[in-house]
UniProtKB/TrEMBL annotation:
A Pfam family per the record: Peptidase_M17_N
GO biological processes: proteolysis
Species assigned in the record: Notothenia coriiceps (black rockcod)
Protein known as: Cytosol aminopeptidase
GO CC annotation terms, alphabetical: cytoplasm
Taxonomy, superkingdom: Eukaryota
Keywords: Aminopeptidase, Cytoplasm, Hydrolase, Magnesium, Manganese, Metal-binding, Protease, Zinc
Length: 534
């Protein structure tokens, strides 16, 4: 008996075109080679399971399809019904396009099939990422979201020959910050389908959970994620790994004792006490191994201070702790993966607020290393909190220092959301970061650290340094990096300016609109890459 097909075209979000093939639900469908039959109407709505499958475009054959191993296996159990339906339901599924089939299998009332593009894609020299991996992430994310919208509770996901990327796509695509809404999105559980690579799948799940933790922290309102709440959240997340992790939530008194005058000059305008969060992950069997030092800007709200920001979009400054969020989330992830490396994470956490006690433009403050700083713009606060954290970080003799910060609007002007801007004094470190980002698809791009910019921050009327460049608007991301460099003596240091990648509208198809949690996966991949580097 031939099922009756009804095709509907809809347009939605990132999925440019979908063709939904509906089989009349009450019809009895022949299920597979064993000739079993079932009635789709018997399936309870609350128990509906979904399946997401991938399909490649056949090389050199216009309109040809190449099913993944899992899709081919599924097609076989249906005696070729899936490939038949794919042929008759519309044009060949191009990369990112999807189609849903209802009632074709008794275990999976909803099956989403998504285009994976060409099998030969691989690493692309001009895009600086692995297109095949990106296609898998995008396709599995799109398929899972289609089924989530249909209120499917459990989805099995095609490994597409790259179970890690499939899990990342599924996990990142399904994330939604709706904790504070009365009406929540349907929660979907996922599972690998038709592949034996459960290790790859689990690694992808952990990578996605790491980025989702950073997204959650960044998206949460500033009255919920205060410096204290941030530190407590990370402490809870690290509790299952207590064996390898020590955590210090340093108080204002400790910060004063450390003479972190630059950090304190930012926190003094707020009623919320600052916290200096210090995490030690001891994953290496050699406890003496020099640690990787990660430092994250942790401004839980940046109003600009006395140099107050304009009101429109000021709410986005709840994510000005994105550096701290991605750094801490990557340490949580490294601990979950039991990476055999030592990592120290530092997060100077505070609010930047205007008040009678706040730092005023023109004030001079003293950083931990004794350098004096004229604060001409209180909105350039990230470099102040990082300056003291960098000075303190050097005391651990790290093998490399990477600081991460939503530091300047200027990096957004330069690169937009395509890549994190990297300023580094080390070709070796650049190579490691770049290599990691090709794998994750969360890209980096190298930026200059010329003396040209250093002159613009050392040219200062009252102090050793000015917190803004002489020509404040020009090369703003570069002068900020030059400022930070004045607090670095280590040979392998990189500053990652993530202001441009902080949020997502629709540029990264496997992330919903909102705070992005980028580049957590790149940091984890980078740390994992250091394992065999001595
Ligand atoms: N947190 C901002 C940078 C930012 C802007 C992050 C947009 C994310 C999105 C930072 O503290 C800031 O305000 N920087 C100033 C520096 C300027 C005063 C020299 C900026 O970029 O305008
Ligand atoms: Zn600011
Ligand atoms: Zn800021």
């Amino acid at each position: 008996m031939r099922p009756l097909n009804l095709c509907i075209n809809i347009f939605s979000g990132f999925i440019y075109e979908q063709q939904i093939t509906m089989l009349l639900l009450r019809r009895t469908v022949q299920a597979g080679k064993h000739g079993r039959s079932f009635s789709a109407s018997q399936t309870l709505l609350s128990e509906r399971k979904g399946l997401v499958l991938g399909v490649f475009e056949k090389e050199g054959e216009e309109g040809g399809l190449h099913l993944t191993e899992a899709a081919a296996g599924f097609d076989q159990t249906l005696s070729g019904k899936l490939s038949e339906l794919l042929k008759i339901s519309g044009p060949t599924l191009k990369q990112g396009k999807s189609r849903i089939f209802y009632g074709i299998h008794k275990d999976f009332p909803c099956v989403a099939v998504v285009g994976l593009g060409k099998t030969t894609a691989g690493v692309c020299g001009s895009e600086n990422w692995d297109t095949s991996k990106e296609n898998v992430r995008q396709a599995m994310s799109a398929g899972c979201r289609l089924l989530q919208d249909l209120e499917v509770k459990h989805v099995e996901v095609d490994g597409c020959g790259d179970a890690q990327s499939a899990a990342e796509g599924a996990g990142l695509g399904l994330f939604q910050y709706d904790q504070l809404k009365s009406k929540k999105k349907n929660k979907v559980t996922t599972q690998l389908h038709g592949s034996a690579d459960s290790a790859g799948w689990q690694k992808g799940v952990t990578y996605a959970e790491g980025q989702n933790l950073a997204r959650m922290l960044m998206e949460a309102p500033a009255n919920h994620i205060t410096p204290t709440a941030f530190a407590n959240t990370i402490e809870k997340k690290l509790a299952p790994h207590a064996e390898r992790v020590t955590i210090h939530k340093r108080s204002q008194a400790w910060i004063e004792q450390q003479q972190m005058g630059a950090f304190l000059s930012v926190s003094r305008g707020s009623e919320e006490p600052p916290v200096f969060l210090e995490l030690h992950y001891n994953g290496s069997p050699d406890s003496k191994q020099a640690p990787l030092l990660l430092v994250g800007k942790g401004i839980t709200f940046d109003s600009g201070g006395i140099s107050l920001k304009p009101s429109p979009s000021m709410d986005a400054m709840r994510a000005d702790m994105g550096g701290a969020a991605t750094v801490c989330a990557s340490i949580v992830t490294a601990a979950a993966l039991k990476l055999p490396v030592n990592i120290i994470g530092l997060a100077p956490l505070c609010e930047n607020m205007p008040s009678g006690k706040a730092t005023k433009p023109g004030d001079v403050v003293v950083a931990k290393n004794g350098k004096t700083i004229q604060v001409d713009n209180t909105d350039a606060e990230g470099r102040l909190v990082l300056a003291d954290a960098l000075c303190y970080g050097h005391t651990f003799n790290p093998r490399a220092i990477v600081n991460v910060a939503t530091l300047t609007g200027a990096i957004d002007v330069a690169l937009g959301s395509a890549a994190t801007g990297v300023f580094t004094n080390s070709d070796w470190l650049w190579e490691q970061l770049q290599k990691a980002s090709v794998v994750t698809g969360d890209r980096v791009w190298r930026m200059p650290l010329f003396q040209h910019y250093t002159r613009q921050v050392t040219d200062c009327q009252l102090a050793d340094l000015n917190n803004v460049g002489t020509y404040s608007r020009s090369g703003g991301a570069c002068t900020a990096a030059a400022f930070l460099r004045e607090f670095v003596t280590a040979p392998h240091w990189a500053h990652l300016d993530i202001a441009g990648v902080m949020s997502n509208k629709d540029e990264v198809p496997y992330l919903r609109k909102g705070m992005s949690g980028r580049p957590t996966r790149t940091l984890v991949e980078f740390a994992a890459g250091l394992v065999h580097k001595g």
